[in-house]
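User: Hey, my collaborator sent me this sequence without any context and asked if I could get a structure. I don't really work with proteins. Can you help?
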Amino acid sequence: MATLLMTRPPDAADRFVAALDPALRARLALIRAPLMQIVPCQARIALAGVAGVIFTSANGVRFADLPAATIRSLPAYCVGRTTAEAAQDAGWQVVLTCPDADHLVAALTDARPVAPLLHLRGAHARGEIAGRLTAAGIETGAAVVYDQVLLPLSPAAQAALAGPEPVIVPLFSPRTARHFADICGDAARPAAPLFLGAISPAAAEPVENLGAAALEVAKTPDAAGMAVVVERLAERSCRVEGPGGAQ
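Assistant: No problem. I've predicted the 3D structure and written it out in structure-token form, which is a compact way to encode the shape of the chain:
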């Protein structure tokens, strides 16, 4: 039986697994081994004069500790359906949802919303949203409301990677992928046949040289796209005959 190694924080991992097809879940042994812990930053959010907010993750919504009146009064521009749903559930007025940072920057540049905007984000972020929008004439600042602390692999994950059975590893961010690649470098290269899924080409790049039996990139950079990848990798892992990824 192949193992599904979930490297996301526990809540996000559980939501992803729960959304998989039940028949697929029944075929996989699940190991939760978060490689990142989300922790709040105790920074004061300066909203004076801000005309709208940008969220690029549900964690940004979660840790934006603001009064309900403020939340109800400001439009929110979001990356990803999950982020938009979290913002709506929290009471924000979601007026734009885009699949990734590039599309968000392009859409806002075309729409010319009332500014300034404020990107509520994690300490480690890609896309340079605030800088690119400001350069395009839409004044945008950034406030870090949470940090993403890297974690070691759990003993259970290490044992699975050292064993003979296939291991499917969905990687949901470039930083997580880089951390996984650092852990599984030459000195600790997994014995198990690796089946890697990446949410984007940027997340695939760090693990390209791990000697995986398969590496697939999601067609859409979201949970739905990654669910398709996991299903495809599960099918491919069924053809593995033994240690070393022989097929």
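In plain terms: Residues 22 and 28 are 10 Å apart (CA to CA). You can pass these tokens on to your collaborator as they are.
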